[in-house]
Amino acid sequence: MGDRYMQDQAEALAQHLRLNDGKSGYVEATADGFRVFLRRKWPGKPLMSWDGLPVEWNENVGTHKASGR
Length: 69
Fold this sequence. Notes:
- The chain is an alpha+beta fold.
- The protein has two helices and four strands; from the N terminus they run αββββα.
């Protein structure tokens, strides 16, 4: 699995979570999974894995972090 693949999967997860407005949150691909950064608490049960890899949730982060800056 290459970096491009992981980046594509991170983008797909962001789309799935509807984090494409550029300010509510974003998804970062790491070597061993994905990290989701959100401005607010995620309602309901968050995904624990995506594409077979673990997802780490970081909720209530600041606006700059949530927009990926």
